[in-house]
Amino acid sequence: MHDFLIAFLGGLMLGISVVGYLYVHGRIAGISGLIGQVLNPQTVFKTPAIWFLSGLIITPFIYGLFIQPEIELNASPLMMIVAGLLVGFGTRLGSGCTSGHGICGMSRLSKRSIFATITFMFAGFITVYLVRHVTGAF
Amino acid sequence: MKNILAFVFGALFSVGLMVSGMSNPEKVLDFLDLFGDWDASLAFVMMGAIAVAFIPFQKAVRSPAPKTVFNEPIDLPLNQKIDPKLISGSLLFGIGWGIAGVCPAPSFTLIGLGHYQILYFIIAMFVGVLIHRKLAGA
Q1: Do A4 and B44 make contact, defined as CB atoms within 8 angstroms?
Q2: Considering only alpha carbons, which residue of chain A is nearest residue B132?
Q3: pTM above 0.90, yes or no
Q4: ipTM of model
Q5: Domain spans, chain A
Q6: Could you tell me which of A3, A34, A70, A127 has the fewest CB atoms within 10 Å of its CB?
Q7: How many angstroms separate the Cα of B77 from the Cα of each of A20, A73, A102, B83?
């Protein structure tokens, strides 16, 4: 199957998941938001976030027993630490990530989320340009 | 019941990430490499997700008091302001995303698949979330 079609099919599954979470749990399935809830002792057992995140971790373990998806993770430990700090801090400051702003917010036609998505895509494009083509780290 | 459904939605989300290629950091970086050998396929992930989510989310947004299937209120973000927090947070997130090719959801999928070096990223991401909370004074 063509890459574009497979990507689209995967996207359909993400869409069903966030719609399910909205209409069953009444909340936006933004993964950075769920992480924030799980890391807060006051909310960890009050929201279904921990269950969603458990599904997100355990399912690939089972899936991987049958199909190993192609994974290439080349970032050094130091790069992963810097990236993780920026992603954790940035998504909380900006109130969302690829799922909350990108999928849910764009589907709501939220001005804030459309703006946020354009901003983080732009920052991602520039960063990859600098890392791959200017500093030549890879 | 609702917790099990949250687990199922998390499971479906992770399968969507693995099928689409979003869980492969190098593929994400190829997608963000707009000025290099651009791999456009991941744009179709967002299209697929929004294709499913658009009408149900619009229905919720346009309803005066949207309800879940359990007849509980749906909690939608009300903030419409594009402020410096949204912009700077999204910029920092985009930089982090462009460094490692990992956003919050795929980081969990990668542990499930046994790529344990992603723990550098995840622990740093948690630290980033907690630093934000400390600075925000919440």
Answers
A1: yes
A2: A89
A3: yes
A4: 0.95
A5: 3-134
A6: A70
A7: 17, 34, 14, 15
